[in-house]
Fold this sequence. Notes:
Largest sheet of chain B: none
Strand content of chain B: under 5%
Distance between the termini of chain A: 37 Å
CATH superfamily of the largest domain in chain A: Dipeptide-binding Protein, Domain 3
Distance between the termini of chain B: 12 Å
CATH topology of the largest domain in chain A: Dipeptide-binding Protein, domain 3
CATH architecture of the domain at 96-275 in chain B: Orthogonal Bundle
Radius of gyration of chain A: 25 Å
Strand content of chain A: 15-25%
CATH architecture of the largest domain in chain A: Roll
Low-confidence stretches of chain A: 8-20
Low-confidence stretches of chain B: none
CATH topology of the domain at 96-275 in chain B: MetI-like fold
CATH superfamily of the domain at 96-275 in chain B: MetI-like
Shape of chain A: globular
Number of strands of chain A: 19
CATH class of the domain at 96-275 in chain B: Mainly Alpha
Mean pLDDT of chain A: 90
Oligomer: heterodimer
Number of domains of chain A: 3
Structural class of chain A: alpha+beta
Amino acid sequence: MFRRICSIVAFAATFAVSAVQAAQTDITIGMQLEPPNLDPTAGAAAAIDEVVYANVFEGLTRFASDGSVKPALAESWEISDDGLTYTFKLRSGVSFHDGSEFNAEDVKFSLDRSRDENSTNAQKQLFESIETIEVAGPHTVVITLSAPNGALLFNLAWGDAIIVSPDTFDLAKTEPVGTGPFKFSRWVQGDRIELEKNPQYWGTPARLDKVTFKFISEPTAAFAALMAGDVDAFPVYPAPENLAQFEADPRFKVVVGSTEGETILSTNNKQPPFDNKLVRQAVAHAINRQEIIDGAMFGYGTPIGTHFAPHHPAYKDLTDDSAYDVEKAKALLEEAGFEDGFETTLKLPPPSYARRGGEIIAAQLRQVGINAQISNLEWAQWLEQVFKGKDFGLTIVSHTEPMDIGIYANPDYYFQYDNKDLQDLIAALTLEPDDGKRTDLLQQAQQIISADYVNGYLFQLAKTGVANAKITGLWENSPTQANDMTEVYWEE
Amino acid sequence: MIRFIARRVVSLALTLVVASAIIFLALEVVPGDPASIMLGVNAQPDTIAALKEELGLNVSRPARYFNWVAGMLHGDFGISYTYRTPVRDMIADRILISLPLAVYALLLSTAIAFPAGILAATRRGAVADVSIMGSTQLGIAIPNFWFAIILVAVFAIKLQWFPAGGFPGWQDGFIGGIKALTLPAVALALPQASILARVMRSSLLDTLGEDYIRTARAKGLTTRQSLWRHALRNALIPVLTIIGLQFSFLLAGAIIVENVFYLPGLGRLIFQGITQRDLIVVESVVMLLVFAVVMVTFIVDVAYAAVDPRLRKR
Lengths: 492, 314
């Protein structure tokens, strides 16, 4: 009898231990902002992609964590010699979360919808070069372009180019139905969104069974939620000042990576005195980038000298062209006829890189005699006054779209830079399919805007995340704003 | 009495009309349009125009105002610009958090304030009085968001008795919901309890000095008996007025505490609505709160009049 009890106890004990040791299969991810809806084709909010990109929705191509473009729903593609016709071979055996089969009609429908005249796609320019989209078989799609576009495969990897089904696209805002490794399960508005594993996924299945995204806007609350274990990871942690504390705590790890966010001191190139290149050059030399990175970002960030991401192979380090040099800045101002300095406005949107960075830059500009009046704006005001109204002298903003040097070719863009040479260069770049030549053109473009001191180039925004030390597989970098959870798991 | 109520109803309706016009106008002059905020900086002008059309923002202002008011009279608060779901459903979800939180905080605050106020009044000048009055001073002075952060640090991070914030939803169990609301309710209740205890004390001291208390004592009641039977009931009138005001405040004014505990309540809904220029949500929620406050006042007015006929003449 006694032995029997012993064996039962032993059995129960092993069972209990194994139950404790079984790896956790659910995870709670903290995010600062709640997405307004879950349809990446109907809004610019980064939070939409942060929940659904690569998790729920997929496109023909996709971004990998290193920023490269990989096949997704398109298995392979062929490009005609003139660069005008792309034939995509789609994956077969893929189904949407509602069970319906994915085929070429879905691709045609999705892309036609996004480039339609009445489309409300926030990145409609991605589809601009597309002339027609034809279904050439159940799993073959032919895209014809009006002019060669070297960036087409890259453009199709954006969240704004994901594939939806004609039957369920109108649900995407609240109950998205995609093809990804996770299915949408529940949205408790204001609090969280829950996803569950898609057992029918065509690719390598996810290792987690359940993912919860929890929305915590207050930095202090984010800190508390991590500390209390309510949230397992905060991939974009909002308070860099606490990072040292997490780093010292063995329960957590701090994940530092790069983003596509070029943080710049945007300058109104049409507003005097900034229409004078000497003045812009003086501003560039008056800025001490490291001081801003240390003071505003607690040391996280990489100095940049042009509008390009340093982790990109085509990046050219031009920081020396605008090195910190107060005497030179003063001399340039004198040459431009502003030996007594001048007054201007510095309009700051809410993110801490802008608000904190703005105070430091204002102090640095004061040393060369430029008096920048700071005004703090909310995003809505910033869009209205600065972005649309172009009523500003200086502003600080991080341009988070990947590969966006093309904005310098648009003279109506809010910083109003108008240079024919650069416009021709970007036009040539769009038509160039060859990678080597593209790199060359991209470097020329970086050189031109740096030499023209269009804006003050500050630093590449770092992605600073905090996660439980046992979590593996989170994206380190942020080639697009996403939290791809496919390869995330808990270590034993 | 009927004429009194009729007069009150007319003034109530007028208040609501004026309030709706002010809310609408105030939000119309705020810069920023919802369509360009939703579409971000890369959007092309025709895309923005298409979205504006879809959202119904191209309709003239007066027409939008009348549609809004007419819809509300039918209980239809419109469709949120950013979430694209009916505002009524959003409010219904959020009120299931804000209302219980307000009630919970109010219960806590009265449960603390009544005994504290009565004790302080009856022990006037004694150690109990001095220490209670001292702590209420502190309770009023401490900002509730700071107190909230301290509560989180102690009870959520250190002891892990309560979650640091968030709300699991009532469908996942009553206990979980109450647990999630406890720290926020305590944070909200502390300053309210401090105010209420002070009002309770001074009001009770006033009544204890009244002639009828002396009479009660003279006819042989003990101090305690006269307190419970006569003084307390009379002292309650100003206290109840304060409780009414506090309730409206707790319903609408918990924004900061909701943010500290990331609770999806009405306050955060307004806050979110303002930053995203989801004006229809802001307008409707503010209107609803105005309605709630006006109704509470109306009920209190009618109740006073019912109790005290002299007030009907006013």
